[in-house]
Amino acid sequence: MRVALFATCLTDTFFPETARAVVRLLERLGCSVEFPLDQTCCGQMHFNTGYREHARPLARKYTDVFAGYDHVVAPSGSCAGMVREIHPTLGESPPRTFELAEFLVDVLGVTDVGAWFPHRVTYHPTCHSLRMLGVGDKPLALLRAVKALDLVELPDSTHCCGFGGTFAVKNAETSTAMLADKMTCVLSTGAEVVSAGDNSCLMHIGGGLSRLRTGVRPVHLAEILASTEEDPWLATR
Amino acid sequence: MASAREEILQRIRDARVPAAEPVVRGYRDTGPGGVELFAERVADYRAVVHVVTDVPEALDRLRGKRIVVPPDVPAEWLVDGVEWLHEPLTIEELDRSDGVLTGCAVAIADTGTIVLDGGVAQGRRALTLLPDHHLCVVRADQIAASVPEALHRLEPTRPLTFISGPSATSDIELNRVEGVHGPRTLEVLVIT
Amino acid sequence: MARNPVTWLGSPTFPKAAHKALADTQLRQNLRKATGTIRGRRAAAVAEMTDWEQLRVAGEQIKNDVLARLDTLLVQLEESVTARGGVVHWARDAEEANRIVLDLCREEQATEVVKVKSMATAEIGLNEALEAGGVHAVETDLAELIVQLGDDRPSHILVPAIHRNRSEIREIFQRRMGVEVSDEPADLAEAARVHLREKFLTTKVAISGANFAVADTGSIVVLESEGNGRMCLTLPDTLITVMGIEKLVPSWQDLEVFLQLLPRSSTAERMNPYTSVWTGVTPGDGPQRFHLVLIDNGRTATLRDSVGRQALRCIRCSACLNVCPVYERTGGQSYGSVYPGPIGAILTPQLVGDMRDPQAASLPYASSLCGACFEVCPVRIDIPSVLTHLRAEAVEAKGRTAESVAMAAAAWMFKEASRYEKAQRAGALARFLARDGRITSLPWPGSRWTSSRDAPAPPSESFRAWWRRNRG
């Protein structure tokens, strides 16, 4: 199956290992992955902050760049949500765009992707995956099938981590209060890795965990699923 | 200058809200119903429920008390040994009574609700409000299964009171406690 | 035009108000406890309903129909209320509504009135207006009473004193009622009963709001728990009901939807203890004079906005407040309005009607857009969509700011992949700020991030650079 990767600007720029993991994972599952180099940003930050008119040309660009692909996959629930739910309100008809977990489960029909990840992991289902896209427990189904992975349930998992895009800086203190509670829940699990399907939320949770030197690492779901016994994930960063 | 009425109506028209799609009533309009469910749901509110076959027998507990009754209460409910208070009654008299005995218009099994409409054996609204103890007689055939079924049976222009358990409040720490201004004891007699 | 009292004069913007609230340990604890309790109870009450989604859809559609036919339905309501002996008044704004109510009180020669909890009267600042006119309004809802006796402001739609715990309530009651009382909720409720009993039995004028008004029958509906509503709606000679023009339902049958949606969404009960329905005046039963005051106060302006008008579907259940992570931490008073929480963040600025007001314009940003509010809303108000819509209005009203310049620059950069890549390469230099892969301190505005979170160091090679090197 021919699949276009929409890396998202955040992952492309700050978390390239996640995008490389998506490529590795999808190719292992028999997909032919393409990365149209003209892609940039879906316009979510602009739209959500009130700069709708700036988001419009970016939505346009997205449609143009990915036209002709039957499946676009993004390692981000919020960017996939922006494309699927918001771009149409900006007058676009974007190509079918999937968040990674729903692409794996719904389109490829797999839950066991042959991964191996010998770590204790807790999973935060990000708000847009959960409520905008309705991804449900598909990520958990994928994680449960990973060999050697010790999955621990995250208390109050559906509560927002407090990122919210520019909310994290415009209402930094409220955002931090939400983050504090999320970190408390993460730490209560005794997990060494907190995973999610969105690097933006992980940057937030991970940024807090790092500031407090908790030693808990944020790892995108794609990197866990890409990890195998032969080619394991390494804490390189 | 246009009146407030004309101005508001004009502003509404100027808003040009497009016609809405038709309402789809895909929800349940009925339910399992029945005396048992009704009794269970009433009891969930910490109301007292008795399922009985005979009203007078069940009223034995009222002996020695001063109980308000609506004007058209069935004669056989007025058992001996109770001081029955008849209308006209002042607010103070109602307030000083020990309780009130009424029938109801409709009851709802799904929600454990009784509805009074000022009809037979119910009286005006103040009667069931000021006495601290309300005994309500519900006939099995008055129990509607669901909220939609109950509303269908009611006449909306009558003064209606839906009662679901004793007076309560959730205003302290968002948890329910019983007993504020309305009757603190609700006793329901279901007649089968 | 007079200032809309829906926001409190002099309130700081949301981030400033939140700064203070977040540091209030007692408030944080009270809110955590109360919202946690109600969230769990609501979820259970809703889980019992197999047709909850169908009810939500019907609720949404009925309210949309009301908004589409509002003029006709209001005229119909007026006719049915009048036919049953009621008098209908119309008020364009708060000032006009307050004047109507005050005049009615004066006609009855009332110096004191009893009140049932009502958002509409709180929104228009009725109590203050009556007080200025020599009429004292006694709040009879327990939570409203706590707020009134504590000289406080409301912080929740359903439970205005949610920010107070039992021991604080005890303190207020002892101080203002002059009684000894324990902090047991049942004892506190008893104290309120005793305190208000005489008022209920003797006051001649009552003021209420309305949860619903049925256009074709003229019936008004009030849902409550304590019985204070029944007292006010039954015992006085005169009843004045103040109602927003959007509180209509077209027909009696429509109530079957809302009487199922509202109690479970607000107090998490199958049914609230008491619901009163009255139509005009009933001879020999209840108030013999009935006035209905219909208020606009910003609603028709809200109606003009095709996205924002859905806020007028709101039935004031407060489920969105209880699930909101922002509300839970900042409390209701941070919103500076009688309508706090997610619904307040979209309703308040629209009723204010002026996005140049910095406080009102800060409210749509008081959300992480997590969507929990939309998920629980019984009439399916897409609050996140309205929030982003109003943010766009706030941006437009603000004009050129440092932020708008930065946003324009970012948009320009993203429009061309080549510019974006150049920026990526330039930004990658920031990794030299990093130690061990993390940046702990950035200059403003990045400092707002690094004040509590480390920032990731940009990698030496972006994904696209890697792709080009390996696959290009």
From TrEMBL, chain A:
InterPro entries the record matches: Cys_rich_dom
Coiled coil: none
Highest taxon, organism lineage: Bacteria
GO cellular component: cytosol
Classification via Pfam families: CCG
First and last residue of the signal peptide: none
The Cysteine-rich domain, residue ranges: 3-83, 121-205
GO molecular function terms noted in the UniProt entry: oxidoreductase activity
Protein name per UniProt: L-lactate dehydrogenase complex protein LldE
Record lineage: Bacteria, Bacillati, Actinomycetota, Actinomycetes, Pseudonocardiales
Automatic annotation (TrEMBL), chain B:
InterPro entries for this protein: FTHF_cligase-like_sf, LUD_dom, NagB/RpiA_transferase-like
Gene3D superfamilies in UniProt: NagB/RpiA/CoA transferase-like
Superkingdom of the organism of origin: Bacteria
Pfam families for the chain: LUD_dom (PF02589)
Domain LUD: 91-191
TM annotation in the entry: none
Matching SUPFAM superfamilies: NagB/RpiA/CoA transferase-like (SSF100950)
Record's protein name: L-lactate dehydrogenase complex protein LldG
Species, as recorded: Lentzea jiangxiensis
Automatic annotation (TrEMBL), chain C:
Keyword terms: 4Fe-4S, Electron transport, Iron, Iron-sulfur, Metal-binding, Repeat, Transport
InterPro entries: 4Fe4S_Fe-S-bd, 4Fe4S_Fe_S_CS, FTHF_cligase-like_sf, Helical_ferredxn, LUD_dom, LutB/LldF, LutB_C, NagB/RpiA_transferase-like
GO terms (BP aspect): lactate metabolic process
Protein name: L-lactate dehydrogenase complex protein LldF
Gene Ontology MF annotations: 4 iron, 4 sulfur cluster binding; metal ion binding
Keyword Repeat tagged: yes
Domain Lactate utilization protein B C-terminal: 396-469
Domain LUD: from-to ranges: 76-294
PANTHER family registered for this protein in UniProt: LACTATE UTILIZATION PROTEIN B
Pfam families for this protein: Fer4_8, LUD_dom, LutB_C
Residue span(s) of domain 4Fe-4S ferredoxin-type: 311-381
